[in-house]
Amino acid sequence: MKHLLLLFICTVSLTVWGQVNTLPYTQTFDGPGPGLPTDWTSVDNEENLPPQVWTVGTIILDTELGWDRIPDLDGNYAYLNSADFGEGSLQDADLISPTFNLSGYNGSDIILHFDHFYYQFSVAESATLSYSIDGGTNWNVVKTWDYSSSNVETFNQIIPNIDGQSDVRFKWNYVGSWAYGWAVDNVSVSILNSRMWSGMVDNNWSTPGNWAENAVPDPSSQVYIDGMISLTSPVIQDNADCYNITIFPWVTDPVIVSPGATLTVYNQLYNDKVEGIMIQADETESASVIASTRSGGGTERVQVHLDRDGDGWHNVSSPVTQTIQDFLSENLNIPEKAGDRGMVPYNTAADNWDAFFTNSTSGDIGTAKGYLLRSNPAGLVEFNGTIRTGTQSTSITAGGNGWNLIGNPYSSAIYANISAGTNNFLTVNGGTLDFSYDAIYIWDGNEYYPINEARADFTEFIAAGQGFFVKAASDATVYFDPEMQVHMPTEVLKSGVITPEVRLSLSNATKSYSTRIAFLKDATIGLDKGYDAGILKADKNFSIFTHLVEDNNVEFTLQCLPLPKSDGMIIPVGIDCKAGGDVTISLSATTVPANYDLVLEDRLLNKFIPFNEANSFYTATLAAETKGIGRFYLHVKSAQTTGIDNLTDAKINAWMDRDEIVVKGVTENNAVAKLFDARGSLILMKNLENTNTNRIKVNGINTGIYMLQVIENGKRTTSKLQISGN
Known about the structure:
The protein is mainly β. It contains two helices and 56 strands.
């Protein structure tokens, strides 16, 4: 059972007690609590005793998810925490606002605004916003939330038919049973206000004197950018909000959203100017624009920064509607060779890249389609068209190898995985993806990096302009929901780190590749959909991967496993190397707890190499062509309190006693002990007696980590030893 997670941003505002006759009205719930503010009520429709109702305060996060407290919280909020009431409880409770007398606002557009957090545990739960104009006799549903969201969501919407009414109330109803809950904060009721850009002071959107009303726009503002009023246009340098924005065609300069800045248009973006908005990027940050709807005959220009030049390729997608010809003609840094430009689509059926685009290639850049693109020199490419709003989709196919290159279609980042709630790409589209490859594959310049639920401790984002691969289970359509959108002004996809994790790399004189093993509490040794991720090979002639401990013959670039207990775990490590020759397997990163030991086994040469430390490595010579598993294995085992690490089920223990290795448990004749150094070289070999305890002198052996292998009746026990040289 998990507890309610909450995250809210609180602001200081004025609380009005009694019947509300004047707008704007704001309630932050920042009073002492736990009782609701005056004239706010909560009703238990289940008539529980004691009542299970809304209250005011804060909630501690569920420690099972790895968080100790609610981050970024600076005040109280109204909430109903279903988990508080225990198993078997049933909540159906209303949070009801004061009465609003809006008879003086006949003909006005009335906006209801609030921040909230709703987290769903099961389909039996619901969160519903309603309003009444007759004192609560009848309620009109505005919206119902039936998905999870672990991030603050803002509701900002004109409520119809309440202007001129004398008895208006709002109601937040939560239904659940020993689940999570709902919290509401920063409630405001206001009228739609006008903000006209004048640019009288400077070009900064956030300067009050730049607006004719001497007030910066807010979520209840109708914004006008009219070149007849000012020859300049605003520059957004931080975070800007408005309800509507209108950009007239005679405006001289575009509205600029600077790198790292955001613009949220809760209702309509109307742009009638060509290049009416410039959404900028630089080497470290990108701007972000989210609008509910978009209209007008103008265009928006969106910059995307490419950080690799020459032969450095990127997977990209377009955040606007635009033709291929127009895009290539405007971006001369996309190189040309023999008539071909450095932009190419992926052919799923052929399992390869398609023909390069040329300057005469016709057609549109596909919605939510990905492309391979390079820039020489590195720097900005610009998309000029109309940004997308609403639900977007693209088709994927299981033909050929099933790999499809798609991309983020919006001018903002989108949530990638479950840490953002159900409205993320993987959750919405997981049913269409191959179960063994339920992930987003991002090209990092060397290999394809999987993003899936193994990184659920971290919220993952897909940046605007980011293309990525998915593998289809069948011919299907993938969807991008506008509620996936989020302001995350980063240049590239931001990814968290799997903890704990092992990263193995394979390299030779010219190439390198890596594979990851994550250890998660709830993982299994079989296939974990959404956690294990099969490999997408950038180079089919050179790669490293693992097979499941319970093998299903799929090659995995990310395998999620439980941390092994005392009996340990053996993970098959596969290699594809067409050229053969010398290769190096290295431990490029590890966050495995110190009480676990890692050992790489070369079964062909009967070598065991300690792999506990980052940068541990082993060089082996491969046959002319090596493909698949069978030679290399990674052993993972909880370290013993004696300081030894047995890698099989044999009941033989070994430890150091000053200058001697003590071997205990030999009960058969013809047992042999072999001592190997960290490079896998044989240092000494000694026959053992069946006296249960044997002692082996190690005088003259250098200080270091060694592996002792004991072979008895064909069974092999390997122990790690720390030897201090004499």
